[in-house]
Amino acid sequence: MQNNCVVRPYKKGEEKYVADAHERVYLEEYNWGPAFGDYARKIAYDFAAARKKPQEELWVAEVDGELAGCIMLNETENPEIGQIRLFLVEKKYRKNGIGSALTDAVMKKVDECHYNKIILWTADALTAARRHYGKMGFKCVESIPNETWSLSRKAVNEEKWEMQL
């Protein structure tokens, strides 16, 4: 990992970075439009507005004072199942171990929370993330087309991945 990177719990107000980064990066890299940006924004702002449960956290990666990525752990409707959300590493910081540092932080919290299973949703276009999840031990268990995110109206295949603990 980049020596000057710190992964830490987010500070109030940084939910704006999380939402804006998702909107910007997914538009630039995948041509996903406002529907995806709104989806990510709602998750980030709802987390910031809610009373945080002990089993939940939003982390940011910071390099020399600049935010470089994020990841979130939420409890699902089933308190034995956690969900990873909003995982992102800024393009200029990729391949420096920051993604691994973020997922290490989330998995440490997962262990503390004694979840039985962890789930996440990703998309087939996110090949590097999918490869990373596979190395972590996640398996793809479901795929559904989403025709609202892409500005080209080409279906994005959303994938549900799970890890039994």
Q: What descriptors fit this protein?
A:
165 residues; alpha+beta; Aminopeptidase; seven-stranded mixed beta sheet; 4 helices
Fold blueprint:
Blueprint lengths: L4 E5 L5 H16 L3 H16 L7 E7 L2 E10 L5 E9 L8 H16 L3 E7 L3 H10 L2 E8 L9 E9 L1
Parallel strand pairs: 4-5
Antiparallel strand pairs: 1-2, 2-3, 3-4, 5-7, 6-7
Helix pairs in contact: 1-2
Report on this model:
It is a single chain. With 165 residues, this protein is of the alpha+beta class. The chain has a domain at 5-118: Gcn5-related N-acetyltransferase (GNAT) (Aminopeptidase, 3-Layer(aba) Sandwich), CATH 3.40.630. The protein is 35% helix and 33% strand. A 7-stranded mixed beta sheet has the order 1-2-3-4-5-7-6, sandwiched between helices. A hairpin with a 2-residue loop joins strand 2 (57-63) and strand 3. The longest helix has 16 residues, at 15-30. The chain is globular, with a radius of gyration of 15 Å. It starts with a strand and ends with a strand. The model has no long low-confidence stretch (mean pLDDT 95).
